[in-house]
From TrEMBL:
Record flagged with keyword Cell wall biogenesis/degradation: no
Name of one Pfam family that matches: Lipase
Domain of life: Eukaryota
Underlying gene: LIPH
Gene3D superfamilies: alpha/beta hydrolase
UniProt protein name: Lipase member H isoform X1
Signal peptide: 1-16
Residues holding Ca(2+): 192, 194, 197
Organism annotation: Carlito syrichta (Philippine tarsier)
InterPro entries per record: AB_hydrolase_fold, Lipase, Lipase_LIPH, Lipase_N, TAG_lipase
PANTHER family from the UniProt entry: LIPASE, LIPASE MEMBER H
Keyword terms of this UniProt record: Calcium, Cell membrane, Disulfide bond, Glycoprotein, Hydrolase, Lipid degradation, Lipid metabolism, Membrane, Metal-binding, Secreted, Signal
Family: Belongs to the AB hydrolase superfamily. Lipase family.
Gene Ontology biological process terms, A to Z: lipid catabolic process; phosphatidic acid biosynthetic process
Amino acid sequence: MRRLYLFITLICLVRSDTEETCYSFTRLSFPSAVVGTELNVKLILYTRRNLTCAQAINSTAFGNLNVTKKTTFIIHGFRPTGSPPIWMEDLVGGLLSVEDMNVVVVDWIRGATTVLYNHAASKAKKVATVLKEFIDQMLAKGASLDDIYMIGVSLGAHIAGFVGQKYNGQLGRITGLDPAGPLFSRKPPQDRLDSGDAQFVDVIHSDIDALGYREPLGNIDFYPNGGLDQPGCPKTIFGGMQYFKCDHQRSVYLYLSSLRENCNITAYPCESYLDYRNGKCVSCGIPQKEPCPLLGYYADHWKDSLKGKDPLMTKAFFDTTEKKPFCMYHFFVDIITWNKNVRRGAITIKLRDKAGNTTESKIDHEPATFQKYHQVSLLARFNQDLDKVSAISLVFSTGSVIGPKYKLRILRMKLRSLVHPERPQLCRYDLVLRENVETVFQPILCPKLQM
C-alpha cells in the first residue's frame, strides 16, 4: 500500500512539472480603482502553438515567441473599473487567424485601473519604457523593427506612439484605435501619437466629440460616419454606460470586422465628411485610378499610394451599418431630369433581387438640386450588396408638409456600383415621380459606351 502511495505521488509530481500553466489577464474590481493601483506591466504571449493557453513572458523568458516572425503588441487603455477588455480575446484570435505571428498582449491593468483618468495617463510613457526594454531584447536575438506592429486602443494608442518615438519612427506599423483625446488634444507630436512614430501609422477615429482625438494623427486617418455618433449606439444618457463608451469602442469592433472574410470596409480619401456624402471623393477603386484604402488590418496595403504625397497624410471617410460586420455598399444614382423649373429634394431608392431580398438607401443628408438636362450623381449607401437587381423603386420628396405636391420628370436614371465597377450598369428612361409616391420599375442594361 505504501509503495502504491509513493508511485501515485511521483506521477503527480511529474505531471505538475510538465503541465503548462496558462496565464490570464489581470482582473481587478472597482474598489481597486477607488484606491488606485501602482504600475505593473505584464506581457502575455499568444501564438498558433498556444492559441488557448497564454504564456507570461519577459525580457529573459520568451516562451514560444519566434523573433523571425511578425510580432503584434496589443495595448489597452484606461480601465476605470479594473475589468479586462471584453474585445481582447476576439482580437487575439482574429489576428492569429489571418497570419502566423506572435501576439503580445500588454497587460498594464495595474496602473490603468483608477477613477482618476489623469493618473492613468501619467503612466503612459512609463509603459512605453517597459516595452522598449523588451523590444531591445528581441532585437538582440535577431528580430527586426520592420516586423514590429503595435495596436493601441485609446490611451494605448499614445503609448504605442511613445514606443515608436524611442526608435525614431522605425517600427513597422502602429494602428491607433480611437486615440484618447482628453489631456492629449493640441499636444506637440512628442507628447502623443504622431504620423512619424512608425513607418506606417493608421488611425480610426470613432468618437471625436467626446473621448477620442479629433485631428489627424497618422499617415491615413479613418473617420467612420464622420467620426461622430456611430449607428446603433445610444443617443441619450438613458443608454447607461453604453452611452459613454459605445462610440469610443466602435473603432475596435470596426477593426475586428477587417479580420473576417465576409467584410472589407472600403474608405474614400476626402477633405470632409460632407464632400464624401455628396459623392465628390469616390474616384478611387475605378479602372485607371489608385485603389481605395481598406479599413483595419489591411490598411497598410495602401501604403504605396502615399508615396510622393507631402505631407504623407490622408483623411478617409465611410459610413457603416449599426450591426456587425458594419459593411455598407456604395452605388451612384445618376439622374437627368427635364423639368422646366428647378426641383430640390431627397431621393429614396430601394433595390430588390429575384430572390425577394431588398435593401434601401435614403439620400436625404441635404436637398439635391435637379435642373433641366443636368446630371445629378447621388451617392447611395446600402446595407446589402444585391448583385442581380430585378426591380428598383424611387421616391422623391421635398420635405414639405404643406403646399403643392411636385413631380420629378426623369429623362434617364442610371445605377452603378462603386465596389464592383465591372458589373453592368442599370438604366431606366422616361419616368415621372409624384412626390412621396413610390414608383417601382424593372431596370434594363445601359448601352455600352461606343469608343
